[in-house]
Amino acid sequence: MENTTIVAAFLGLLEGLTEFIPVSSTGHILLAGHFLGFDSAGKTFEVVIQLGAVLAILTLYSARLIAVFSAAPSDPQARRFIWSVLLAFLPAVVIGVMAHGFIKEVLFETPMLIAVMLILGGIVLVFVDRIAPEPKHDDAMKLPIPMAIKIGFIQCLAMIPGVSRSGATIVGALMLGASKRAAAEFSFFLSMPTMAGAFAYDLYKNRDVLDTSAMGEIAVGFVMAFISAVVVVKWLLDYVSRNGYAMFGWWRIVVGSLALVFLISGF
């Protein structure tokens, strides 16, 4: 039990550290769980602890979100921002519900696929960081609604573990003309309904396989995810504004390559 709690704490820390950077938190957690022998019922642990990271974003952006929702009745720009996030969220709802079983029972159980997607996503990130067009949009709260919807569809690629939800949305936003900082921030905003929805739906689908011990592990992972996500979000925006995303692409390539080596070797 003690060892399981330590592993759950480590995986929660890993979730918070990787959720909002474009390296695929789910990919990292599933691979780490595979190599550490950690297996949660219905892979619910891996999804539910993401709520800790969501609450970190809500905490850090609470003042801005309260201001936006308070202004919405009289401010068209505030209403447009809210609609842009909700409409960008919808494609993930439809595809996530339709493909939930396949995603959890097949894709989440294929470590080799995750490792390959980490590598491919890393290559894409390195190149996009170099070739992204000159940014036209510097404010994540003022992205055009059609652009936000396109980012929402691109986010659905992250249904494949190893792709990265933040990576897909950031790459999509960069290629559609968002600045590096605006791309990261819109990814933050879009993560709130997306991850909260995934948490609620997954908890509902797996309500019959959860037990008391699983809830204890989830609680530990949740707290660690929250704490580490707060640290990462505070650091990330300034970092990418100055340095871009190439470092995360190379990180993905290294981690994915190491995972492939271990998997091929029979670990």
Please describe what this structure looks like.
With 267 residues, this protein is mainly alpha-helical. The protein has one domain. It has helices spanning 2-18, 25-36, 44-48, 50-60, 62-71, 76-98, 100-105, 111-131, 145-155, 165-175, 180-205, 212-243, 246-264. Helix 1 runs parallel beside helix 12, helix 2 (25-36) packs antiparallel against helix 8 (111-131) and helix 6 packs parallel to helix 9. The radius of gyration is 18 Å and the shape is globular. The two termini are 23 Å apart. The relative contact order is 0.21.
Distinctive features:
mainly alpha, 0% strand, 267 residues, globular
Write the SSE topology.
Elements: H1 2-18, H2 25-36, H3 44-48, H4 50-60, H5 62-71, H6 76-98, H7 100-105, H8 111-131, H9 145-155, H10 165-175, H11 180-205, H12 212-243, H13 246-264
Helix pairs in contact: 1-2, 1-12, 2-8, 4-11, 4-12, 6-9, 6-11, 8-10, 8-13, 9-10, 10-11, 11-12
Subcellular location: Cell membrane
GO biological process, one term: peptidoglycan biosynthetic process
InterPro entries: UppP
Any low-confidence stretches, pLDDT <50, length ≥5?
none
Write down how many β-strands occur, each being a DSSP E stretch of 2 or more residues.
0
Shape: globular
User: How many domains in all?
Assistant: 1
- Kindly report the average pLDDT value: 88
Structural class of the secondary structure composition?
mainly alpha
End-to-end Cα distance: 23 Å
Biggest sheet: strands, sense, closure?
none
Radius of gyration: 18 Å
Task: Provide a count of the helices.
Answer: 13
Question: How much β-strand is present in the residues?
Answer: under 5%
Helix residue percentage: over 70%
**Secondary-structure element sequence?**
HHHHHHHHHHHHH
